[in-house]
Here is the input.
Amino acid sequence: MTLARIASATWLCLAIAAAAPVAAQTSAADAASAALAAPAPTEQVAAEPRPDDSAAARNKSQPGNNAPVWRAVRDSGEPGKSGTVNVPGAEQGVLIQPTVAYPGVRPNNAGEAWRQVRNRWLIPYGGALLLITLLALALFYWRRGALGHSHNDGRPAVERFTPLERAAHWTNAAAFVVLGVSGVVMAFGKFFLLPVIGGTLFGWLAYALKTAHNFAGPMFAVSLTVVVLIFVKDNIANGADFNWLAKAGGMLGHQVPSHRFNAAEKGIFWWGMTIPGLLMVASGLVLDKLLPMTYLRGDMQIALMVHICAAVVMLVMLIGHIYMGTVGVNGALKGMRTGWVDAAWAAEHHLLWFNDVRAGKIAANRSGVAPPDGTGVAPGADAPLPAVPRA
Ligand code: HEM
Here is the structure.
């Protein structure tokens, strides 16, 4: 009896266990066919993602895909698409700048395009130009040595530069050297200094030089203005300059007569100093944020590109000037150091100017300050000097 009961209970359990999946399948099939038959409630069907989705819509259609957020970030520089921010200030809602097309690189967002212009063009080609200049001057010095016979070690005869002119010149030169050295380290230091002195020292050096650069800039701007005003009247081109240029300044033979400054000096005055100097100073004042204006990223990028171009031109030309002013021309440095030149130097390098001094058209002592050795002024005293027709 008991055995029969147990057997029937076991059979019942097995029957229920076997029937359950069948029942489940049946109800799932029923539900599916009911779902197909009934119209789908809209909020449950995943909409296809679209490019103009809001972040909320995309979060529903493709949870975890936040492309709309990044699209908004990318387009925040386009007109009318900047984001909304709580921090006041110009351009705060622009996370990525709009696309620009600069020469030499593909159109890209302005930040990236600027980076490419700087790193692919300005730095490598600017650096190459500076190295070529140094190499060319070294070769020239090796083959030709210093130019000129006179060493300007005779009796001071003509005041070539007044104390004011020298003070302005040397202040400007000092500021330029600080700017040049610090600028070169900032632009090219990671190629030639970093591998030698290591990251820590280079970091400190670059920081110190960048600070020096920021302070020397305004000093350069002021002294450059004074230098331009002082020397401009003697740097206007005239007929003698064309003659000088046609004969390459006497590179291939005798010195060609010139007025106070020759055509090469005038060229450097305008194309190596005044024009790039104005561009350097203007762009530098923008980079230092010293001008009263609203500073946008694009302004800074353009200012930096102008600054680097002008700096390379100015460095190339003024390296040439410094070469001629130191080892390139005998006696020239003494003229700028003491202010005075002897008659032989004046006649050899600037005969038309010296003739004007001898003729009394230009005062031999313009400042009224005696020359360093106190011997007084006697223009032409070291004669004999050739009489040369004026240009
Ligand atoms: C440390 C570097 C420099 C040295 C050694 C140097 C040397 C000289 C020398 C010796 C002269 C006299 C040339 C002559 O008698 O004909 C001179 C003239 C002159 N220098 Fe410099 N100089 C230096 C830097 C500069 C800089 C940075 C500037 C301007 C950015 C400059 C602008 C001038 C000007 C305007 C003249 C008069 C010549 C002219 O107007 O054409 N110099 N320099």
Q: What stands out?
A: The pocket of protoporphyrin IX containing FE is lined by residues 160, 169, 172-173, 176-177, 224, 227, 231, 235, 261, 265-266, 269, 273, 277, 318, 321-322, 325-326, 332-333, 335-336 (CB under 6 Å). The first strand starts at residue 99 and ends at 100. The radius of gyration is 39 Å.
